[in-house]
Design goal:
alpha/beta, 72 strands
């Protein structure tokens, strides 16, 4: 029992103890000493979780419970929501633990004003600090979901820092009132001449990303005031989501006033997902006699929005305002970037950066706003992934000024500097992609120690210096990269003891900028030149340098530019020994200078002698001038070096002592090397290696004058290059220096050598140089009795045969080289086949061997044999004969005559083949001779367009029932379609209802009208291709007559007819038209149920009868009398049908040659024929015909026809009152349009009684008049503006021999095609524009005659004549293309003729092809002849009875039976 009871009691004690521990952990209250908390905080930051810290801390540190919301006089609970609404002042640490939210209401303060006091809030929810609320303590810790600081609220640990970490020197020693140090050093107002002192030093660099150290106190100024301002406290914010700062978070150092230094800033560490607001986070140093250093801030926020100001600047120094405390550090732990920013507070105190993270690498380093940074280690590597920026008065110091032997590396993507400085004590190696410097400096101080390695700046992509930016080193300096190096303008400079620029694509030295090596002092110059001054041997590394471009003490150069593609110099390149090799081009632009003047030897091999006050000039390329003083002569220095490959420094002159300094000779400029010459050197500015002038007389030690010192000798300019351009006002100078006053001799001139890499001969010869500038190599002038130095040398590489001189030309340079002729060959058009230099050896070339369109050309190195080279006058002609492509074709077949003969044979053979095929397919032309004129005229049109009465075998009763033929008015065009006049004629007044008839006219005229688009299409086609426009018009006319026939036959109900039978059977009216679709009519018939008249009475009513001619007098539609079966049957009552048909055939033969444009003259033969052939035969049968005009319209259009008088009717049967009307009476009765159409004769001419007829009594209401010899002169006609075309297109009389005519047409058609193709080939060679213009103006017109002609020749049936006319139209339309060809030829060759003759074309006095017009002219001739043969062919097709043209009436009527 007892053991069991003992075990129960033991378990109970253990459970009670665990309960107490859990309760303590839940409340979270802990009160203890600050030192104990620091141990806990260190443990906490290692785990980055304050909850785990409390769980893993030692139990003995949890001496008290955490407070509740009620304990803080708040409302609610920390596990739900707690509102603190009253001020709270505590004197010990305060810990809050809970799972809820906390809100500190506005103007509420939680204050623990004890240094090192801790206020900690560990909550799961949100914390909100209201407006003007404050939390004051030595350390403030928040762990929550989010923290919001309202406006003007604050978390303030300023000057409440506890003790800084042990074994640190943040608090200064002594009584100088220095500031405390932390992130930056504290300022000290004590200063020596060599170094600056500082106050408290930095510490806690290792915890840069998680700072948790108090700031340090400032130093005192006396024993009474042993310390200054206190250090800043600590703030740690661990937020799972958002930190919203509209107030402030301060861990600033305390104010030391005038009695002590300022305290350094404390530590602020923030971890949150998002940071927002417009507040301030500050760990700045405190103000004091010496300002305190800035603290350390670390932000680890995934997102930073808006503008939270972060400050880590040093405190102001009262004792030394220009030297504030150093800036602290601001580390962005999320992006791994470091910022040192002093807020533009001036300081000379640095912020040491001890080491840089290598894993991971930092992203960026920003040093801004007068911040000064020190990297003090002996060897240090500063490497970041992004950029290093130095902005706004900031700077970095590498190394210690007392020990300039360190090496430093700076590695980044970009190095950006603006108004900033980098100082290096030792050597610097920089590796960046981009280097941008604005008003900034990089200064490398090697301390004069030879063990210091070369400083190397590797800038891979872009290096730009601007705004007086300088890179300088008093030791060796090298820059290399793969992109661009640009010194932008005035004051930009790169200066070194030895300087090497290599591997750049382009180096640009802008206006006012400088590349220099060595430095300006004599010591630096002597260090570079001393090894060469006493040697006469040429340093081979200048002639054949090593392939690498590294700085090497064994090399001779002082300034090297190596492996750079292009070098542009607008500023100054200055050096003792300038060497540019493995470069492509060097351009010394206007204002640019490459100079080695006065940078050579102070003594040297050719040093000028000084004896008894007389100083001789130094020698080099020429002897120095002798000095003369007080009757004593001192000889000048000797010549030395090689003229053909010089590479020596100029020598100086000796003086009586060192009081005036040495007189220096010129240096060396070497561009290119023997293996890698420059591709091109362009000099607009100057290149100089002059000796120094002596400007002051020398003096003895007692101050008395001792005579003049001689001038220094000129140096060397050695150029390995392929070509040289020495432009206007440019200068190459190796002039010797002038002798000093009181008898100093002038220095000798230096040496210039052009070592051409390759001198081509013959066709490969290329001019080596263009020299418009000046080359100076004279000796310096002497003073008083002193002599002038001898001139130096200007040499070139030895030239091959035929060329000589410096530039391998005729003229060598003397003292001043101006424009020189680079080569001398025989004149163009001559050749020289023998050695010698006499002009008489140049023999003129043979003109006979020169093609017609060629001229002699110049050949490099001259012409050595005949024939001489030539070139066609333009590139369009083809070598070697300078032919056009067409001429090459022609001359391929033996020339123009043989080609023409061959082409003619081909055309004839093809024509015979086509004619044979045509006869086989179509038949011979003689097969048409058996058909009579009328039949032929009817067959070549479409018979389906005629009225039904035209069909043979028409019933006799239909003819007997015919009452009247009413013709349509108008020309049947798109502008003026057919229409019927209103009011029924007298002949049908008894068989129609007048009102219904007028309604019929309205409907009929609307059907006869064309749509607008039909006319638009016709207008477009008329411009582009007139034959297509004519075909379109005929097609629409044909469809229109079909529509009218269908309308009358099927759609109209014949309601205007009185006959019921006609209305019922739709047989009272029929529509017909002539075959050419120019005239249409309506025939009216009796229905059979009217009152019948006898046949004789019916026939008598039809006379006098008007018959309208078809056609309009044009080429496509000549006038013709169309007599259908109805007319023939009607007239057969008086005239036998054979007589009538013969009359119609003969009249049509006469009418086809009548053109409307010349109607007044063309109708006279027709009138004569009617009188001589027609009426005598008709009068025998009691019939007479007269020509007349009828149916004039408002547009002036009228129709021709005949008036048939039969039986007892005649012109003289008209009553006298009507027949004797005066002209005035007739004018009043005939409509105005008739008067306009039929112009009245002159007043002296009387109106004949038979000239004008009464409309009502003769024509049945049809307006018109008769035409005779008097009235024909009054007929109006359309003016033919295309009258020249009528010479090609006109209807003629037949000529017979149809097969022969068709054969000739075939020959001409093929010849037309071939000549057309040749013409197109010709103008395609002239220009593509001319080719397209000829082909497309008008479109298709040039090539369409051939297929149209084949179609006409191979067609059958009645359409042959119509297709032949279309062929003739295409042939005439193509004349527009020929006109365009002439215009293009005149423009092209006319402009070419106006151009002045080139000097090159002196051997060819003619211009280009002057026979271009030949093919268009032949084509025009072919088309003209072709048109005439086509006219004959059409006449043979349409009129095959030659007896119709018989002048004898008896012979004409003898063939009546055949007709």
């Amino acid at each position: 029992m007892r053991p069991m009871l003992a075990n129960c009691l033991l378990n109970w004690c253990i459970l009670c103890q665990l309960f107490i521990i859990v309760l303590s952990l839940g409340l979270g209250q802990y009160r203890g000493e600050a030192v104990a908390f620091e141990k806990q905080a260190d443990y906490y930051f290692g785990s980055v979780n304050i909850t785990s810290y409390y769980q893993e801390s030692e139990p003995q540190f949890l001496t008290n419970k955490s407070v509740s919301c009620e304990d803080l006089e708040g409302v609610g609970s920390f596990d739900t929501n707690c509102l603190l609404n009253s001020d709270l002042y505590v004197s010990s640490d305060l810990y809050v633990l809970g799972t809820g939210n906390l809100e500190i209401l506005p103007q509420v303060s939680i204050c623990c004003p004890i240094k090192g006091c801790i206020i900690s809030f560990n909550l799961t929810g949100n914390v909100k600090v209201g407006q003007d609320a404050t939390i004051v303590a030595g350390s403030v810790i928040f762990s929550a979901l989010s923290l919001t600081l309202g406006h003007n609220s604050s978390i303030n640990t300023t000057a409440l820092g506890g003790a800084p970490p042990s074994q640190t020197s943040g608090t200064p020693v002594g009584c100088d009132g220095a500031g405390g140090g932390h992130g930056g050093r504290g300022a000290s107002c004590l200063k020596t001449n060599k170094t600056n002192n500082w106050g408290g030093d930095v510490y806690a660099w290792s915890s840069l990303s998680k700072p948790w150290s108090y700031g340090s106190k400032g130093g005192g100024i006396s024993r009474e005031h042993t310390s200054g301002g206190s250090g800043g406290g600590r703030v740690y914010l661990d937020l799972k989501d958002l930190l919203y700062v509209n107030g402030s978070i301060h861990a600033d150092g305390g104010d030391g006033g005038i009695n002590g230094g300022g305290g350094s800033g404390g530590s602020i560490s923030v971890h949150a997902q998002k940071l927002k607001g417009f507040g301030e986070i500050s760990a700045a140093g405190g103000r004091g006699w010496g300002g305190g250093g800035g603290g350390r801030i670390s932000l680890n926020c995934n997102s930073r929005q808006e503008d939270v100001k972060v400050s880590v600047h040093g405190g102001w120094s009262i004792g030394c305002p220009q030297n504030a405390g150093a800036a602290g550090t601001f580390y962005d732990a999320y992006v791994l970037s470091l910022r040192v920013d002093n807020d533009n507070i001036t300081t000379e105190t640095e912020t040491p950066l001890l080491d840089f993270s290598t894993s991971p690498l930092w992203t960026n380093v920003y040093i801004e706003n007068n911040a000064k940074v020190l990297v003090p280690l002996l060897w240090s590597r500063v490497q970041v992934r992004g950029q290093i920026s130095l902005l706004y008065g900031s700077g970095i110091v590498f190394g210690l000024s007392n020990f300039p032997v360190s090496e430093f590396e700076l590695v980044a993507e970009e190095l950006l500097m603006s108004d900033s400085i980098i100082k290096v004590y030792g050597a610097l190696r920089v590796s960046v992609k981009v280097l941008l410097m604005l008003q900034s400096q990089i200064q490398v101080d090697g301390g004069g120690n030879t063990v210091v390695t070369t400083s190397v700046l590797e800038v891979r992509n872009l290096a730009v210096l601007k705004g007086r930016s300088v890179i300088s080193s008093n030791a060796n300096l090298a820059l290399y990269g793969q992109g661009l190096l640009t010194l932008t303008g005035d004051g930009d400079a790169i200066i070194g003891q030895r300087l090497s620029l290599s591997l750049f694509y382009n180096v640009t030295v802008g206006p006012g900028s400088l590349l220099q090596a060595p430095l300006d002092d004599n010591r630096s110059r002597s260090k570079v030149t001393e090894s060469l001054c006493d040697s006469t041997n040429c340093p081979m590394d200048l002639i054949t340098p090593p392939d690498d471009c590294h700085v090497n003490y064994t090399l001779s150069f002082s300034l090297q530019i190596c492996r750079v593609e292009d070098i542009v110099v607008t500023g100054i390149i200055k050096g003792s020994i300038i060497h540019v090799h493995r470069a492509r081009t060097v351009i010394v632009d206007y204002g640019g200078t490459i100079t080695a003047s006065e940078l050579g030897c102070s003594k040297g091999v050719g040093m000028g002698n000084y004896s008894n006050g007389a100083g001789g000039g130094a020698g080099h390329g020429g002897r120095g001038g002798s000095g003369f003083f007080n009757g004593r002569l001192s000889e000048g220095g000797q010549r030395y070096g090689r003229a053909d490959l010089p590479c020596e420094l100029g020598s100086g002159s000796e003086g009586p002592g060192h009081s005036n300094g040495p007189i220096i000779g010129g240096g060396i400029i070497v561009l290119g090397s023997s293996q890698w010459p420059l591709l091109r050197l362009d000099v607009y500015g100057s290149m100089r290696a002059d000796g120094q002038n002596c400007r002051t007389p020398s003096k003895n030690t007692d101050g008395s004058l001792a005579g003049g010192v001689g001038g220094g000798s000129g140096g060397t300019i050695l150029l390995f290059l392929q070509s040289l351009a020495l432009l206007d006002n440019s200068t190459l100078s190796v002039v010797g220096g002038s002798g000093g006053p009181l008898g100093g001799g002038g220095g000798g001139g230096g040496r210039v050598h052009f070592h051409w890499s390759k001198i081509n001969m013959g066709e490969q010869y290329v001019p080596l140089a263009t020299v418009n500038g000046s080359i100076y190599h004279s000796g310096g002038t002497g003073d008083g009795g002193g002599l002038r130095g001898e001139k130096g040398t200007v040499t070139g590489r030895k030239c091959p045969k035929g060329l000589y001189g410096t530039f391998c030309a005729l003229v060598d340079c003397d003292n001043l080289c101006h424009l020189i002729k680079l080569n001398q060959e025989c004149p163009t058009g001559t050749y020289k086949d023998a050695e010698g230099s006499e002009p008489s050896l140049c023999i003129p070339c043979s003109i006979e061997l020169l093609p017609r369109r060629a001229y002699f050309i110049h050949r490099r190195g001259g012409v050595t044999e005949s024939p001489c080279p030539y070139k066609c006058i333009t590139d369009k002609y083809r070598m070697p004969n300078c032919y056009t492509p067409l001429e090459e074709l022609i001359y391929t077949f033996g020339g123009p005559w043989l080609f023409s003969l061959l082409l003619s044979c081909i055309v004839v053979l093809l024509a015979l083949l086509l004619s044979t095929l045509r006869i086989k397919v179509v038949g011979s032309g003689s097969s048409y001779n058996t058909s009579n004129s009328m039949d032929h005229h009817s067959h070549h049109h479409s018979p389906h367009l005629l009225s039904l009465s035209e069909v043979r075998g028409t019933r006799t009763e239909e003819t007997q029932s015919h009452v009247h033929r009413m013709y349509f008015m108008g020309p049947n065009t798109f502008r003026e379609p057919w229409h019927l006049p209103y009011s029924p004629p007298d002949a049908i007044i008894e068989i129609v209802y007048e009102d219904a008839f007028n309604r019929f006219i309205d409907e009929f005229n609307s059907v006869a009208a064309y749509d607008w688009w039909e006319g638009s299409v016709h207008s477009i086609l008329s411009v582009l291709a007139y034959p297509c426009a004519w075909s379109w018009k005929q097609w629409r006319r044909r469809r229109k007559i079909h529509r009218l026939q269908e309308y009358v036959k099927s759609e109209y109900d014949h309601s205007c007819l009185r006959s019921c039978r006609s209305r019922a059977l739709y047989k009272g009216m029929k529509v017909g038209a002539t075959p050419d679709l120019m005239v249409a009519y309506i025939d009216f018939f009796l229905g059979g149920d009217e009152k019948r008249l006898d046949i004789v009475a019916s026939i008598q009513k039809r006379f006098p009868m008007c018959i309208i001619f078809g056609g309009d007098g044009s080429y496509m539609s000549p006038y013709n009398l169309h007599s259908d079966t109805s007319l023939t049957n009607l007239l057969a009552q008086h005239v036998p049908s054979t007589v009538w048909n013969r009359l119609v055939a003969g009249l049509n033969a006469q009418l086809r040659t009548v053109r409307h444009g010349s109607i007044r003259s063309a109708l006279l033969p027709v009138l004569n024929w009617v009188r001589s052939h027609g009426n005598p035969q008709l009068e025998f049968h009691g019939v007479k015909i007269e020509l007349g005009w009828f149916q004039a319209t408002a547009s002036g259009y009228y129709q021709l026809g005949i008036l048939v008088l039969a039986g007892d009717h005649s012109l003289y049967d008209i009553p006298q009152a009507d027949n004797s009307e005066s002209c005035d009476d007739f004018s009043r009765k005939v409509p105005k349009i008739v008067r306009r159409t039929l112009k009245q004769p002159q007043e002296s001419q009387q109106c004949s009684s038979h000239a004008l007829l009464s409309r009502k009594k003769i024509t049945g209401g049809m307006n018109g008049g008769l035409i005779n010899d008097s009235t024909v002169k009054s007929l109006d006609f359309r003016r033919d503006y295309l009258f020249p075309c009528s010479l090609l297109l006109h209807n003629t009389r037949p000529v017979g021999r149809e097969d022969t005519v068709q054969l000739l047409i075939t020959i001409l058609l093929l010849a037309d095609l071939f000549v057309t193709l040749l013409t197109l080939v010709l103008f395609y060679w002239v220009s593509l524009g001319a080719f397209l213009a000829i082909l497309l103006i008008l479109p298709l017109s040039l090539l369409s005659p051939f297929p149209a002609g084949l179609n006409a020749l191979f067609s059958k049936g009645p359409k042959r004549a119509t297709l032949a006319r279309v062929y003739a139209l295409w042939n005439a339309t193509s004349l527009s293309n020929i006109a365009v060809a002439f215009i293009c030829g005149i423009i092209h060759y006319g402009v070419a003729a106006l151009k002045p003759l080139d000097e090159e074309s002196i051997w060819y006095t003619k211009r280009e092809d002057d026979k271009w017009w030949l093919f268009p002219t032949i084509l025009l001739l072919f088309k003209s002849v072709q048109a005439r043969f086509v006219d004959w062919h059409i006449a043979n097709l349409e009129v095959q009875d030659f007896s119709l043209f018989s002048p004898d009436p008896d012979t004409f009527w003898a063939y009546e039976a055949v007709s």
